[in-house]
Sequence to fold (237 residues):
Amino acid sequence: MVTFETEINNKVVKLYSNAPLKNAATALLRTLNKLSGETNIFNPNFAVNYGWARYYLSKRKDKNNVYYVVQTADYQNDPFKLRTDDCTRALIVQNMQVDTNMKAKVEKPEPTLFSDTILVLKEAINAPDVYLNRTEPSKNGDSGWYMGLLNDKKEGEHEHDEFVTVHTSELMKIRGEALRVLQMPVGTLAVFHDNTMTALVDGDDNPLEFTTADDRKRAIAQKAAAEAAQGESENKE
Fold:
């Protein structure tokens, strides 16, 4: 477990993650620090929506030392009732969405919360080839996203009971990679084969750039090689 620690208003704040997600963790802690100038973030009832996730602060005591732990909703189990000290999943989604927005050059991301809903064609839940399309939300709490079958021969002819409305947090179990497009603007269409995005277009059918799984593997390998080289250089010194 990686621990990220900072001091806000003379209070120690810790954030735990199972992965070294430094950029995402630092951005969140910086936001909490900024919010501390506007509200009492150490209030037991404090909660903040940041990106797709919701975060809280839990007061802890270790011997005579008091500190606060950043918690998030437990998206793997019941995000509406349970919290967890492990911010890994929330930070990964944060990184995924930032990566997609930056690569596609999205100027004004349109936030979607874990608690917002998405309309899903039941047949698409386990289908290999699906698409996600975003239209204008119909009401508060509606993300505007729809997940359907690619090349659906019955498109527009499905009965009402062939659809299900779920919270976007359910995508973590259904098709985790789909979480990366949730901040894309109305009109966006993303195509997935299994858990891999294969196409991304805007509302005018213009193709948008996105990082592939291979791109991300290469970036991780390059980062690891650079860190190893830096370590060797420091050891020689």
